[in-house]
Design brief:
alpha/beta, 6-stranded parallel sheet, 21% strand
Length: 778
């Protein structure tokens, strides 16, 4: 009786004849057919599909997959499949945490309320936690509707610095305490009391005192201090630029920037495969694609912000890639020092040039020229006076002669001749000394006058008007509270022309080198050249004033081809969607809502280094240290990136190599494996942080790898190393596999890992790689 493989082989001969070759792989729950040909027409593929469905209906044991590929290509260009059971491994279900995961929030102002909301979002459906809140005053203004439903118990009214209040809140069984009141002294005092009551509680404190925070971190341990006014400022500033820069930050002395660039018809990227983008100093983190492309590498979670595109995607017009890039700092090479003799010769040769430069510097200013002339004239009078006194006053030494001459130059005529009353002094010498004293006094008075003039001129220069208002392409910053000041500093670093608009006279002392308007903001705003401005950033504490100014700015620029950019600081997050409908292309940002996500991430033990926004989603910069038994230990960086939907940007190995060199990488390779003590910094949304906290990785797919005879013996060894390096498969299993070539191997991989594996193996041996999909075709 003929085997199933013989039956399929005979039917394929009848269907395709000699125009193709094929490879048949039969497993317990799958039947895969790989067809290679350069002459298959769409009608052939259609017949192949109908035949495959009939085969699946007769077999009925699992999945039937048919692939068509070009010869010597590792991936198919066409495929179809039928399945009665999923071949995709399910994600590990994470059980609920214990009741010990209790969080106490001290202070229910805007930040405290948003922290409650962010903690619940962080927890998701699979993480049970208790949230208790302490507020000093009973009349709480709730800014978020139904927020009390997120609390485990009613709000505790009392002073969070008191031991009794913290004990009522359950500080002894608390995982994290967040002290986020508006009084930093209260927050610090609360943290100190909480540490005394519970040595293991994790402390997250709202504080802007950097030095004090560093000292407390060393003393208290497990202590994180965040400044809610610094965290959201980059989001405001970069939104105002209205350019392709989405973020800018520094990690371990290395500057990073996040860019986006829509692809136009004349772009050289059109038709370029996405995988060719990757460079050592760049990493693609997102592709907003406007076209659909069929691919066997379609990710299992395409809705995520990061790593959501198939790696074989080709750029098309309208796509918008987003990438992170290391900003290279150009350092000048050190110039070796010459030996002492050469240095002396060089100094002598440069002496005439230096004298000429000094002479030009003297004559470059009237005051310097006058002082220089007075100095050499005074020196000459000093020398002449000393000689005359030495040879015309009996028994007067040279030392006393020079001293007396110097005193005369300072106007001390009486001091000199008061001590020479009994000495015979020629009358003509007395007249000469009087003239010397008068000339010196006039010179001193003149110099003092010039100094006074310079001081007064500097004072008037200090008080003179600010620079004129720029006439085009400037950003108008309205309000100079803490966030406004941070925004100005960031925009100045980008050399962006600015106009500051304030209504508080005390704020006029800030940024004195920048143009500023003072007065009623709605009245002064049109004077800031709105019609040619790039954008307006509204950061005042008055939400309605921000809205009014935004409407004025949009109305004043209605005739422009493109509307003026508006970045509006708000405090009620429910206004976000309404403002976007009212003011298209406006960017309403709630500072405390942005900062609260960083506080929530820090509450679970992560260190938050900053945040920014991509497409209205908050991206956090999180710093992890791998500990024994946590959800990162033993995983490849690629598995962390694709499984948790994060972007690793810095890796530091805890172990030192020979010679004491510490291994660290910016934008690290996917093939590095994390061990206890390693440090990893990632870009992540709050969903990504939650996945890491719970160990809930996105499901991987089953892939079937066939490898033919290697090109040579060295290639065989390299094949085993690559499989281990990219997939994490133990090296002994990889070595066993290559000893059996040609052979097939089933792997559990993420799509980018599978693509990279096929790309690199095809240079060493014939390769076929395809997924065991669970898609059912009617």
């Amino acid at each position: 009786m003929a085997s199933l493989e013989d039956v399929i082989d005979r039917q394929l001969h009848q269907l395709l004849g000699s125009r193709a070759t094929w490879f048949i792989d039969i497993g317990d729950r799958h039947l895969s057919i790989w067809v290679e040909s350069t002459t298959l027409e769409p009608t052939d593929l259609d017949r192949l599909s109908r035949w495959g469905k009939t085969l699946w209906q007769q077999w009925q044991r699992g999945s039937v997959l048919i692939f068509a590929a070009e010869p010597r290509q590792p991936f198919p260009y066409w495929w179809t499949s039928w399945s009665v059971a999923s071949a995709t491994p399910q994600a590990t279900q994470i059980g609920e945490t214990t009741a010990g995961d209790r969080f106490i929030i001290c202070g229910l102002g805007s930040l405290g309320q948003f922290c409650i909301q962010s903690l619940r979002r962080f927890a998701g459906e699979h993480l049970a936690l208790e949230i208790r809140a302490i507020e000093r005053h009973a009349n709480i203004e709730w800014e978020i509707p139904q927020l009390t439903e997120l609390l485990s118990e009613p709000v505790i009214i009392g002073d969070c610095r008191q031991e009794a209040v913290l004990k009522v809140a359950g500080i002894d069984r608390c995982r994290t305490l967040l002290a986020v009141t508006s009084d930093e002294a209260t927050n610090i005092a609360t943290a100190i009391v909480a540490r005394r009551l519970n040595p293991d509680v994790h402390l997250v404190v709202r504080s802007s005192r950097d030095n004090l925070n560093a000292l407390l971190e060393k003393k208290l341990g497990s202590f994180v201090a965040l400044n809610p006014t610094e965290l959201p400022a980059p989001a405001f500033a970069l939104a105002a630029l209205e350019e392709n820069i989405l973020a800018a930050f520094t990690i371990e002395g290395q500057q990073f920037r996040v860019f986006q660039q829509p692809i136009t018809a004349d772009s050289p990227l059109v038709g370029t495969p996405v995988h060719r983008w990757q460079r050592r100093h760049q990493r693609l983190i997102s592709v907003r694609s406007c076209h659909a492309q069929s691919s066997i590498f379609q990710p299992t979670r395409p809705h995520r912000l990061f790593n959501h595109w198939p790696p074989d995607l080709c750029f098309a017009v309208g796509d918008r890639p987003i990438w992170i890039e290391r900003v290279e700092v150009v350092k000048s090479l050190p110039i070796p020092d010459p030996n002492p003799i050469q240095r002396r010769i060089q100094q002598v040769r440069q002496l005439p040039e230096q004298v000429e430069q000094f002479w030009q510097w003297i004559h470059g200013d009237r005051s310097r020229e006058l002082i220089f002339n007075g100095l050499w004239m005074g020196s000459g009078l000093w020398l002449v006076t000393a000689i005359l006194l030495r040879y015309n006053v009996p028994e007067l030494t040279w030392q006393k002669a020079f001293a007396a001459g110097f005193i005369l130059l300072l106007g001390g005529f009486g001091d000199v001749f008061g001590g020479l009353e009994n000495d015979p002094i020629p009358p003509w010498l007395l007249v000469v000394c009087i003239l010397v004293a008068i000339v010196s006094l006039l010179f001193i008075v003149g110099v003092l006058g010039l100094l006074a003039e310079k001081l007064l001129q500097a004072r008037f220069d200090f008080l003179k008007k600010r620079p004129p208002l720029p006439t085009a392409d400037h950003v108008i910053v309205v309000g100079l509270d803490r966030i406004g000041q941070q925004v100005v500093q960031i925009l100045r670093a980008f050399r962006q022309p600015l106009v500051l608009l304030v209504d508080n006279p005390e704020q006029t002392q800030l940024f004195e080198d920048l143009p500023m308007l003072l007065g009623n903001i709605p009245e002064k705003l049109p004077q800031a050249h709105l019609e040619t401005a790039k954008s307006v950033v509204l950061t005042t504490a008055d939400e309605m004033l921000n809205l009014e100014a935004a409407l004025i700015a949009r109305q004043a620029t209605e005739q422009r081809e493109s509307p003026i950019g508006l970045v509006i600081g708000i405090y009620d997050p429910s206004l976000t969607n309404d403002l976007r409908d009212l003011l298209p292309r406006a960017r309403p940002l709630c500072a405390y809502a942005l900062a609260a996500e960083a506080f929530a991430g820090a509450a679970f033990g992560e260190t938050m280094l900053g945040l920014f926004q991509i497409d209205q989603q908050t991206v956090l910069i999180a710093d992890y240290t791998v500990t024994a038994g946590d959800t990162l230990e033993g995983k490849l960086i690629g598995e962390v990136a694709y499984g948790y939907a994060v972007i690793p940007i810095f890796y530091n190995r805890h172990e030192q190599f020979l010679g004491g060199e510490i291994s660290h990488q910016f934008l690290p390779s996917d093939t590095l494996q994390l061990t206890v003590g390693d440090r990893l910094i990632v870009l992540a949304t709050i969903d990504g942080l939650r996945r890491i906290e719970q160990g809930k990785m996105a499901p991987r797919r089953l892939w079937r790898l066939w490898v033919g005879h290697p090109r040579n013996a060295e290639a065989a060894l390299e094949i085993g190393n690559l499989i281990t390096k990219i997939t994490g498969l133990p090296l002994p299993r990889s070595r066993t596999f290559i000893q059996q070539l040609p052979a097939t191997l089933t792997l559990v991989l993420y799509e980018p890992q599978a693509f990279r594996l096929g790309q690199q193996l095809q240079a060493l041996a014939p390769v076929r790689l395809f997924p065991l999909v669970d898609q059912e075709t009617a």
